[in-house]
Amino acid sequence: MRDEVLSLLFSLIGILLILFGCYLFSKFAAKKINSFSNTQNIKILEKVPLSQDKGLALAQICGKYYLIGFSSQTIELLKELSESDLSVPPKSGPKSSFLEVLQEVGKNGWSVKSFDEDKGTMEAGKKGTRRNKDKENP
Questions:
Q1: What angle, rounded to 10 degrees, do the helices at 2-37 and 98-108 form?
Q2: Which residue, 14, 53, 110, 138, is the most exposed by fewest CB within 10 angstroms?
Q3: SS3 state of residue 29
Q4: Model pTM above 0.70
Q5: Long-range contacts of range 65-73, CB-CB < 8 Å, 24 or more positions apart?
Q6: Do the beta carbons of residue 59 and residue 66 sit within 8 Å?
Q7: Are strands 54-61 and 64-71 parallel, antiparallel or unpaired?
Q8: How, if at all, do strands 75-81 and 42-49 pair?
Q9: Maximum Cα–Cα distance for the chain, whole Å?
Q10: For 19-66, how does the pLDDT look when each residue is reduced to its tens digit (9 = 90+)?
């Protein structure tokens, strides 16, 4: 019986070490990918897909902001934007760390995220958001 418990404990520790290693590798890989995609003079601030092969991108190139349309065949500069045209100043880096997301999931449980239009934020698993209220009261 004691050998079975020790075997189970070592297996559990091994699985946890593997998961922690995967976490560390994903952080390392994300930093490397971001360093390749965002250079000092060119940064892609946002991308929005419009269809399977078309989309819009907001780019900062040498301190100027550009709205770019792209498809599988073409790339077009749609408009040069000033900093005052942007609704939210661009932030660099991830919005939240893995630990923050994991803590949020622990508090709210596993659920589909819904957009809270009043706050402009994503909330996980909270009932009574604006979207749900609109469905209840047409």
A1: 120
A2: 138
A3: helix
A4: no
A5: none
A6: yes
A7: antiparallel
A8: unpaired
A9: 71
A10: 999 999 998 888 777 666 557 788 888 899 999 899 999 988 888 999
For 63-131, the three-class secondary structure string (H helix, E strand, C coil) is CEEEEEEEECCCEEEEEEECHHHCCCCCCCCCCCCHHHHHHHHHHHCCCCEEEECCCCEEEECCCCCHH
- Tokens at residue 30, please? 């994300």
How far apart (Å, rounded) are the C-alpha atoms in residues 35 and 28?
11
Residue in 23, 12, 43 with CA at minimum distance from that of residue 101: 23
Contacting residues for 56 by C-beta, under 8 A, at least 6 apart: 47, 48, 50, 67, 68, 69, 70, 78
Structure tokens at 28: 């390392």
* Tokens, residue 62: 């040498």
Q: Which of 74, 88, 78 is nearest to 57 (CA)?
A: 78
Residue with token string 């994903």: 26
